[in-house]
């Protein structure tokens, strides 16, 4: 009997040690989430690339990593996308921010890198998005419930050792899943590191939410990318310094087609 207790005790100890080791490994690999803006109704955090918005298996989601019992996720970023992510402080704030998103009174600017030359350097990319194969979405010529993206800049990075060739600046006027990734593919310039849409291999998905503005709650936040060899390169820094985020966020900087689209969306 004593031998049985001893064996069970050994197994219990081994299990406990394994759990401790696993917890230590998870703690060591847990990313730090930085707060980049805060107001009475919101937090804006810098979501790292590779961190999911919601828990996936053993990977904790943003709310778990940030902590706090009353924070609400106001929108989502793809796992591989980094940058500005808005959390509301409580239900009332979440409702107010949700209303702003629904009424298209939110301005967001993204920066991406591609290894390809796009078929257009700037323009409004619009069309319905439909499910395709392998969890992909694709853009169609229909416009019953269209995604609309304003591609404002395409800047060449010049020669370099990494595969990034151009910097793309985009402002999504709608909030569809994979919208900017699909828009980039539709103009022949899939984002670097976006294997799902033909962007090839890289150390991360090169898409970053650089700025967000929600006038309803006085929110105005910016975040520069801080990971990925191509985002950290001198070539990117030189090109990125030419981008005026204040101008990119302004509605009056949108082309007529984009302003008319927003006006229709806000009415409906």
CATH architecture: 2-Layer Sandwich
Question: Can you give the mean pLDDT?
Answer: 90
How much of the sequence is in beta strands?
25-35%
Strand count, sense and closure of the main sheet?
Answer: 10 strands, mixed
Quick one: how many beta strands? 12
Report the uncertain regions.
1-9, 19-28
CATH superfamily: Pseudouridine synthase
Organism: Pelagomonas calceolata
InterPro entries: PsdUridine_synth_cat_dom_sf (IPR020103), PsdUridine_synth_RluA-like_CS (IPR006224), PsdUridine_synth_RsuA/RluA (IPR006145), RluA_PseudoU_synthase (IPR050188)
Protein name: Pseudouridine synthase RsuA/RluA-like domain-containing protein
Signal peptide: 1-25
Word description of this protein:
- Residues 42-183 form the Pseudouridine synthase RsuA/RluA-like domain.
- InterPro entries: PsdUridine_synth_cat_dom_sf, PsdUridine_synth_RluA-like_CS, PsdUridine_synth_RsuA/RluA, RluA_PseudoU_synthase.
- Belongs to the pseudouridine synthase RluA family.
- By secondary structure, the protein is an alpha+beta fold.
- It has one domain (31-267): Pseudouridine synthase (2-Layer Sandwich), CATH 3.30.2350.10.
- Helix content is 29%, strand content 26%.
- It contains seven helices and twelve strands.
- It has helices spanning 2-29, 62-66, 91-102, 179-186, 234-240, 245-249, 256-267; strands spanning 34-39, 42-47, 71-73, 82-89, 107-114, 123-127, 129-131, 137-139, 147-156, 166-172, 207-214, 219-222.
- The strands form two sheets. Strands 1, 2, 3, 4, 5, 6, 9, 10, 11 and 12 form a ten-stranded mixed sheet that branches. Strands 7-8 form a two-stranded antiparallel sheet.
- Strand 1 and strand 2 (42-47) form a beta hairpin.
- The longest helix is centred in the first third of the chain and has 28 residues, at 2-29.
- The termini are far apart.
- Residues 1-9 and 19-28 have low confidence and may be disordered.
């Amino acid at each position: 009997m004593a031998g049985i207790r001893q064996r069970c005790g050994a197994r219990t100890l081994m299990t406990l040690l394994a759990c401790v080791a696993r917890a230590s490994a998870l703690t060591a690999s847990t990313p730090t989430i930085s707060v980049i803006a805060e107001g009475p109704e919101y937090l804006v955090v810098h979501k790292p690339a590779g961190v999911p918005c919601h828990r996936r298996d053993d990977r904790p989601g943003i709310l778990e990593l940030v902590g706090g019992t009353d924070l609400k996720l106001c929108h989502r970023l793809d796992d591989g996308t980094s940058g500005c992510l808005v959390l509301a402080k409580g239900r009332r704030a979440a409702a107010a921010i949700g209303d702003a998103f629904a009424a298209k009174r939110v301005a967001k600017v993204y920066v991406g890198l591609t290894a390809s030359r796009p078929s257009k350097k700037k323009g409004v990319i619009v069309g319905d998005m439909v499910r395709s194969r392998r969890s992909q979405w694709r853009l169609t010529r229909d416009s019953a419930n269209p995604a609309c993206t304003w591609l404002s800049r395409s800047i060449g990075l010049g020669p370099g050792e990494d595969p990034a060739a151009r910097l793309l600046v985009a402002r999504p006027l709608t909030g569809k899943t994979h919208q900017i990734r699909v828009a980039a593919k539709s103009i022949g310039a899939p984002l670097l590191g976006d294997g799902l849409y033909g962007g090839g291999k890289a150390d991360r998905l090169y898409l970053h939410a650089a700025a967000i503005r929600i006038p309803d709650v006085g929110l105005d936040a910016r975040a520069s990318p801080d990971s990925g060899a191509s985002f950290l390169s001198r070539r990117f820094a030189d090109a990125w310094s030419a981008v005026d985020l204040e101008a990119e966020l302004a509605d009056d900087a949108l082309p007529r087609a984009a302003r008319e689209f927003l006006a229709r969306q806000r009415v409906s």
